[in-house]
Amino acid sequence: MAPPHMASVPAALRRAATLARWYPAAMFSSGIVPENKPILVRDFVRSALYDPNHGYFSKRSGPVGVLDSSIRFNQLDGRSAYMQYLDKLYKKHDIAWFTPVELFKPWYAYAIAASILRTANLSVPLKIYEIGGGSGTCAKCILDYMMLNAPPKVYNTMKYISVEISSSLAEKQLETVGEVRSHLSKFMVECRDATDRAGWGRKDPQPCWVLMLEVLDNLPHDLVYSPDQVSPWMEVWIEKVNGSSQGSEVYKPLQDPLVSRCVEITGINEEKVSVRDKLSLAAKGVVSKVFPKPRRAWLPTGCLKILDTLHQALPSMSLIASDFSYLPDVSIPGDRAPLVSSKKDGRTLDHRNYLEAQGDADIFFPTDFWLLEKIDHDCSGFSKQQKNPGAFKPVKTRRTIILDSAAFMEEFGLPLKTRTKDGYNPLLDDFRNTKFYLSVPTHNKK
After folding, report:
1. Does residue 222 sit in helix, strand or coil?
2. How far is CA 242 from CA 32, 48, 61, 245, 255, in A?
């Protein structure tokens, strides 16, 4: 994948953009790292982030950041005034970040609502699922938009379901949405793990929408390793060093089904056997013996798991996902490596080793949107049809598009609403390392 466009962003401004990350509730059942048994990297990441006793998000004090009122961007002079205003907001609320939905309310969620309304099949009642609804701001704003702009029948018959594992956030969402009394009959919260297929009940063949906003960056990932340019990839496991809480890596042949499947989807293990390729591989083999260069690649196995679940439960879903396509200043090695950062005494520290994340550090990953598309197609069954086409050419089951956030907002939103007096627009200018992924079925499956 070609490197996405990324403006030159100083550290302070990077934090200003990164502060818009979602403060998620735990989406996975957590487990304590065993003393005498190695665990996969995804289990280490899950525990470091979500364990109820020592996980990063369990330790975070204070609720998801909620602004008392919308920011009036047209009253701010420019970038400097906006940054000063943000600084005051963070000191006032004493939190690490606000979500983009919150910073740019209602306009960010309005753009998402407009994209849904433009392409939804309005002959059936509109149903929207949001994975990890945070404070409920997105749900309220989308319901507001539908009430104000959609045909009355659409608003009156629609359902908006938040899939949220945190009971405290579920209560907050009901409180936020309940500010408009008529919304409550359309809104509900289901406190459960979104990756658990059983929680979705029987397969629902009806069209619906699924929103995942800043969710993918905190999903557990796995790691594979090769000691040189030609050796096979191996799974990375973590074991505790004797007498210490520090972990160390252990390498095993590929055997975990989720890791193996993700390796297959990424294609990193594929080697063509043409004469030219054989000569190239032979040359690489010689070079690797003289100058061995270890290879590492992070695999979005958490993304694979949740998309598998969603496609099984909601085969006619339309998906909107937004997240970071690129993270600056990452020092941890490997393709799609995460940024691991902690805050001490008001200062942010980026770690060079992900194993230093012991519950006091956030671990978040960039999203390779082209790989996301491949995973989406694989989970929907299209990739399997391609491999076994039979007598007929397989019909593509998904239509997908990847847009820079600025392009998405210009297409569906009202960017003039987030522009300052001198023309600076934080929604368009500060989020150039974020993208939207839209995936819709090519036809409704009966």
Report:
1. strand
2. 17, 19, 32, 8, 26
pLDDT tens, residue by residue, 248-259: 899 999 999 999
Residue 308 in this model has a pLDDT that exceeds 70? yes
Q: Quote the tokens at residue 436.
A: 């939207």
Asked whether residue 78 is assigned to any structural domain, the reply reads: yes
Q: Which candidate, 61, 147, 40, 140, places its Cα nearest to that of 360?
A: 61
Tokens 């006619």 appear where? 316
Q: Which domain holds residue 309?
A: 63-212+300-320+387-445
- According to DSSP, the β-strands at 39-40 and 127-131 are unpaired
CA distance 158 to 124: 9
Q: What's the one-letter identity of residue 313? A: A
For residues 92 and 143, the model is more confident at: 143
- Does residue 156 belong to any structural domain of this protein? yes
Tokens 């082209």, residue? Answer: 370
**403-416 residue pLDDT tens:** 999 999 999 999 99
Percent of the chain with pLDDT over 70: 80
> Is residue 349 one of the residues assigned to a domain?
no
Do the beta carbons of residue 14 and residue 219 sit within 8 Å? no
pLDDT for 167? 81
| CATH code of residue 187 | 3.40.50.150
Q: Is the separation of the CB atoms in 324 and 434 below 8 Å?
A: yes
Distances (CA, A) of 304 to 16, 195, 261, 266, 299: 29, 10, 9, 11, 9
User: Which token pair is 340?
Assistant: 């691991």
The end-to-end CA distance of the chain, in Å, is 36
CA distance 223 to 251: 10
Say which residue the tokens 């953009």 belong to: 17
Residue 138 contacts by C-beta under 8 Å, 6 or more apart in sequence? 99, 101, 108, 109, 112, 130, 211, 213
Please give the pLDDT value at position 356: 85
Helix (H, G, I), strand (E, B) or coil at 103: helix
In degrees rounded to 5, what are phi and psi of residue 229?
-75, -15
Structure tokens at 305: 């798991």
Has residue 161 been placed in a domain? yes
d(Cα 103, Cα 120) in Å, to the nearest integer?
A: 27
The total number of structural domains in the chain stands at 1
Residue located via tokens 């959609």: 150
Q: Please state, rounded to an integer, the average pLDDT across all residues of the chain.
A: 84
Convert the pLDDT of each residue in 100-130 to its tens digit: 999 999 999 999 999 999 999 888 999 999 9
Q: Six-digit token pair at 257?
A: 């089904």
* pLDDT at residue 96 tops 70: no
